[in-house]
Amino acid sequence: MQPDEGLFTRQLPGDRFREQTDPVLQLENINVSFDGFRALTDLSLAIGVGELRCVIGPNGAGKTTLMDVITGKTRPQSGKALYDQSVDLTTLDPVAIARQGIGRKFQKPTVFEALTVAENLALAMKGDKSVWASLRARMSSEQDDRLNEVLRLLRLDGERYRQAGLLSHGQKQFLEIGMLLVQEPHLLLLDEPAAGMTDAETEYTAELFRTLAGQHSLMVVEHDMGFVETIADRVTVLHQGQVLAEGSLREVQANEQVIEVYLGR
């Protein structure tokens, strides 16, 4: 895949396991409790600029709560969540965090099914307006070029005028990724983005993410280890709300604590 110049100005280096850069996101000693249940305990995590980090762990490990903290849905009882080394996310609401350049994709695609593919992208691009005002407002030539770039990148250019509700599950997943990309986020949080996709769609998603990394930072929560192996620079393993292990997938797979958690021995 050759990305459009306007979207991607930097090619991936030959070795996709890039050196750790300055952190775009740094979590320090995050604690979250719900009615006495400790969802996150002294969790610390740093993601470098342009890094593609995968977060794995059994159900209940704290993966969703982690994303909720980053996006402002859940406020921790203690700890710091620094974005771009200076912005404390724990003091901002979800809208303000999104405006800082953090975008989140949930596991189940959430698109406007009655609108066309292009209208969904236009609406996401002009998120500071109401739905009706966004659809009536004329796009600038720059915005139109960006929309066309994203359509081509996600292989949805042939579906431009199709109602989103008529798309396949995989196409809806791509559309929602596109709705994030048109907002030009610096950090993308993606929850099981390949869930329900065909093998071909999953393969293309991996290729897409490898292309996006470098220009964007990505944090991907995923259960499919084959997909993780294909895309990840580094892997963080969560267990009972804490970081159990971190490193390349090969390193965490060889970790005795990880083996015990996953295999129960």
From TrEMBL:
Keyword ATP-binding: yes
Entry keyword set: ATP-binding, Nucleotide-binding, Transport
Gene3D superfamilies for this protein: P-loop containing nucleotide triphosphate hydrolases
Keyword Nuclease tagged: no
ABC transporter domain ranges (all copies): 25-265
A Pfam cross-reference name: ABC_tran
InterPro entries the record matches: ABC_AA/LPS_Transport (IPR051120), ABC_transporter-like_ATP-bd (IPR003439), ABC_transptr_urea_ATP-bd_UrtD (IPR017781), BCA_ABC_TP_C (IPR032823), P-loop_NTPase (IPR027417)
Gene Ontology CC annotations of this record: plasma membrane
GO terms of molecular function: ATP binding; ATP hydrolysis activity
PANTHER family: CONSERVED COMPONENT OF ABC TRANSPORTER FOR NATURAL AMINO ACIDS-RELATED, HIGH-AFFINITY BRANCHED-CHAIN AMINO ACID TRANSPORT ATP-BINDING PROTEIN
Name of the protein in its database record: ABC transporter ATP-binding protein
Taxonomic source organism: Klebsiella pneumoniae
